[in-house]
Every structure is written in C-alpha cells, then in structure tokens.
Write a structure and sequence with these properties.
With 525 residues, this protein is α/β, with parallel strands linked by helices. Helices cover 48% and strands 20% of the residues. A hairpin with a 5-residue loop joins strand 9 and strand 10.
Length: 525
C-alpha cells in the first residue's frame, strides 16, 4: 500500500522533529522539514507532497498563511495549519486560504491523525467531485455543442423544407394552370374511385365545379352516367382485363349529355404501384349529334373543293377502332399517320407503286378491292376520294356502273360508303345523278331544307328555350303555340326527320333539343 507523503513547515526544530516522529509512527512518510514560507513554496512545487502541515507563524517575510495561499494557487495540495495561537484575526485570514483543518500545539497524536485523515478524505472527495464536475462540464459542453449543431441543422432543414414546400406549391400551381388551360377534358380517378382532377374544360362542359366533384366517389356523383357500370369497367382496366375506356358520357347540371372521346391511361407511382386512371379527351357531342344519323348500309356524298374535311371526317367515324378503307389520290401527312393504326387500310389511285401503299388504277380493280375488304371485315366505313382520276381515264357511265356495284356490296354488309365529290369537275347533269344515288351529309343538307313559318317558329322557340336551359316538352309547346299535342308531335317528327332537332327520353319525359344543323339553318335564315 502506498503511504501518504507529508511535508512539515515549522521554524522550531524540536517541535518539527517531535511532529515528524509522531507522523512516522502513524505510518506516514515525511518528505521534508522546512522553516520558512519561501522554502515551503519552493519544496511544495518540487516534491508535490500529499499534504502539508503548515505552522502559521514562521521566520522571514512570508508567514504560513501567505505561503499556503501561494501554494494553493498553483498546487492542489491540502494544508493543515499548526499553531499555538487561534485569535479571531488569524483564523479569519486562514479561512480565505481554504485550509483543511487546524492542529493546536502541543500536539495530541490522535488529534493530529484525525485531522490528517479528515483532510485526506475531504481532499479525495473534492478531487472526485472536481472530476465529476469536469466530466459533467464536458458532457454539458458536448451536449450543448450537439444541440447547437442539431439546432442549426434543424433550422436549415426547416428552411429547406419551406423552400421545397414553396417550390412544390409553385410547381403544383403551374401544373394546375396548365391542366386548367388545356382545351381537352382532363379527369383523373384514384384507386379508391375518388375523382382527383377535374379541369376547367370539363367544368364548362358539365356545369359542375371542381370543388363539387374532387374527393368524391364516382358512384355518388350525378355527372357520371351509369356510374356503377363505369366503376366496374374501371376495375377491369385496373386489373388488366380491359385495355381502356375510349368514351365517357357525362351528364351536365342541366341533364344534358356530353360525349367525350378520351384516351385512358394508368397512373403508376414511383414504386410501380397503381395509383389511378387518367382520362384526356375531346367533346364530340356536336359531331355525334351531327353525324349520328348516318345509317349503316347507306351511301353519302361529301361535296367541296378541299378533300381534307372528307379525310378528317372519315377518321372521326372510324373511332373506337372501327375499320376503315380509304381509297384516295392524295398522300398527305394525315394519310401517312393513318398507316400507324391497325384499323385503317389505305389504297392509292395510281398506276405506279407508291411507298408502302397498295395501288390500283382500273375500275374493275376498285370493285375487286372493295369486295375483298367487305368479305373480311364487318361494321366498316369506305371513303372513295378522287373519282376525277377515273373520269380522266374512263367514261362517267363506267364510273357510275362501278359505284352501283359498290353500293350493293356496302348495303349487303350493312356498312357506310362515303364519296368525296369536287362539284367543279362534274356538270349539272352528272352531279344530279350522284345526288339521286347518294345522300348528302346531315350538316351539308341545310340548303336543301325548306321550312314553313309554323315549323320555323317552333324551331326558333326550341332554340331559345335550350339557350336559357328551360325544358322543352310537348305540353309546353302546345301551350305556347295554342295547338293540340297531336299537332305538336307531327311538327316535331318533321323537324327530327330533317335532322334539325333531337328528341331524348329523360325519365318519363321526352325532351327536345335543337341540333347543330338546326342552329345553322336559323343562322342562315
């Protein structure tokens, strides 16, 4: 066991030797005996004893209290004062130096040992406390540093999040502006069949605002006709059992129908998990009303000086993958794009091979081509564009014979035959013959309609009621024109026969709406 080292500071030799003998009997090691304060300071620095017994009254300029004060400033050594005097002034000075006790002369062995052991215990406790305090300070400093660092990081994180939030808001607002600026209908429905996107275009078409639609289940919204059937179809699309939905029929706030030709695509999340369905499309209600009266088995002519309308109209009829055969003299960009779709076949009127297209140049070949196409397909549309090509090579009589045969084939297969005619290349007699064999398109038939004043007034009244969103039924018309319901029914049938109105059943009522053709007639009148 290591013995504690004690230094004695005493200017009286006999007293110092007596004290040394007592300490050694107690088992301590006395390192030095010094007589002055100056020497005590020097030896304390050199020997670093474990404890100093310091006489207060010493020879020289520095007494024991001054020496103890200087030692305590530079060395952490416990000091016990040894004195024969204990006046108040001396004790007051001694307390300032933070001594560890007092031993009064003459010495008692037990008193000396007790004070020394108490001093050692107190010093070790202070050292341990100091160590704990140092560790605590380091921990607090380290924790404070980490907290400050975390606080700075948190502030940066908050700042970055606010910045990201602002950026996301700008992107969201920009995307919303783009969606709302689109001329197409844009609707998205999530995996729970809740509407998530409802842009301005569909708002204007249906009269339902986005706030009334977004976040609601399609089965609980009046805007989706046959909502349960629509939901079942969506589920089949989601499950991969159905390629997509190409047409949406929406009910407006005024109970009208809007027909949307749409492309349907699946919305996947970053983890390739299904999150919704997106519809982007155009309102084809007017086209549907305008050309919905085209009947399979019939033949129609399209007149004009530019064939682009005929081609675009042909494409619009072949929607929903309906088959179409285009026989044309012109290879435009529109025609080239059609080659990428499986539902079109294109034949070029030419003696020479033209790119990837099939070509014909004889009337008999034309009939053969159409017969073969009819035998392989059902529910199709044929557009013959470029009869002037045959008229420059054959007689009008030969051409009409071929057209008669084509019409018979089309009628047999319950399909539609369109003939584009540039009236400038035909004389009046030839054009009259074609008009006998072909019907004009509904929207091109306005000039041929003649209305009496009674029918005209009724058509005008229906138009006015439609524009003000008022319901038009037989009872209302009979009351306004002071005629019986039977007469109203007859007039409505005449207007419907000419394609000027549409009569739709809504619930137990039959309601009347003016068609685009009817509007055109009123404008021309």
């Amino acid at each position: 066991m290591v013995k504690e080292k004690i230094m004695i500071v005493e200017d009286k030799g006999i007293v110092a030797e007596n004290l040394k003998n007592k300490l050694e009997r107690l088992g301590y090691v006395v390192t030095d005996i010094v007589a002055s304060g100056e020497e005590a300071i020097k030896k304390a620095f050199e020997d670093q004893p474990d404890l100093i017994l310091m006489d207060i009254r010493l020879e020289g300029d520095i007494d024991g209290i001054d020496a103890a004060s200087q030692i305590r400033k530079k060395c952490n050594i416990p000091i016990i004062y040894v004195t024969a005097y204990a006046d108040d002034e001396t004790l007051k000075r001694a307390r300032v130096t933070e001594s560890y006790g007092y031993v009064l002369k003459p010495f008692e062995l037990r008193e000396v040992q007790g004070n020394i052991e108490i001093a050692f215990y107190k010093h070790r406790a202070e050292m341990e406390l100091e160590r704990y305090r140092g560790n605590l300070e380091r921990l607090v400093k380290d924790r404070t540093s980490k907290l400050l660092s975390a606080n700075k990081k948190l502030k940066r994180e908050i700042k970055n999040r606010e910045k990201a939030k602002e950026t996301i808001k700008k992107l969201k607002d920009n995307l919303e502006n783009i969606i709302n600026s689109a001329s197409e209908v844009i609707i998205s429905i999530d995996k729970d069949f809740m509407v998530q996107t409802w842009n301005k275009r569909v708002e204007s078409l249906t009269g339902y605002k986005a706030k009334e639609i977004i976040g609601k289940n399609i089965s609980k919204l009046p805007v989706f006709t046959k909502s349960n059937e629509f939901r079942d179809n969506l589920k089949q699309v989601i499950d991969g059992k159905k390629p997509g939905i190409n047409k949406l029929i929406l009910k407006t706030i005024n109970n009208d129908r809007r027909i949307i030709k749409a492309s349907c695509s699946i919305i996947d999340s970053e983890s390739d998990v299904f999150s919704g369905v997106l519809f982007v499309g155009d309102d084809i209600t007017i086209d549907h009303e305008r050309y919905g009266s085209l009947k399979p088995g019939n033949s129609y002519f399209i007149k004009g000086e530019d064939n682009s309308f005929a081609t675009n109209f042909f494409i619009s009829l072949c929607k929903d993958d309906q088959k179409g055969l285009l026989i044309t003299r012109y290879v435009s960009d529109i025609v080239r794009e059609m080659t990428n779709k499986n539902n079109f076949k294109i034949v070029i009127l030419s003696e020479s091979k033209f790119d990837v297209f099939r070509n014909i140049f004889e009337v008999d070949d034309l009939i053969t081509e159409i017969n073969e196409y009819c035998s392989k397909n059902k529910n199709f549309v044929i557009l013959l564009d470029g009869i002037h090509y045959f008229l420059t090579r054959f007689s009008f009589h030969d051409l009409m014979n071929a057209i008669y045969r084509i019409r018979e084939t089309v009628l047999k297969h319950d399909s539609i035959f369109l003939l584009y005619v540039d009236s400038l290349i035909l004389d009046e007699k030839q054009f009259a013959i074609l008009k006998k064999e072909f019907q004009p398109l509904p929207d091109q038939h306005v000039d041929d309609v003649t209305l009496g004043d009674g029918l005209y007034d009724m058509l005008s009244y229906i138009n006015n009621l439609n524009q003000t969103n008022n319901l038009v039924n037989i009872k209302r018309l009979a009351k306004n024109f002071s005629i019986v319901g039977k007469t109203v029914t007859k007039r409505l049938k005449d207007l419907e026969k000419d394609g000027l109105i549409h009569i739709r059943r809504q619930g137990r009522f039959k309601l009347t709406y003016i068609s685009e053709k009817g509007k055109t007639l009123l404008n021309k009148r």
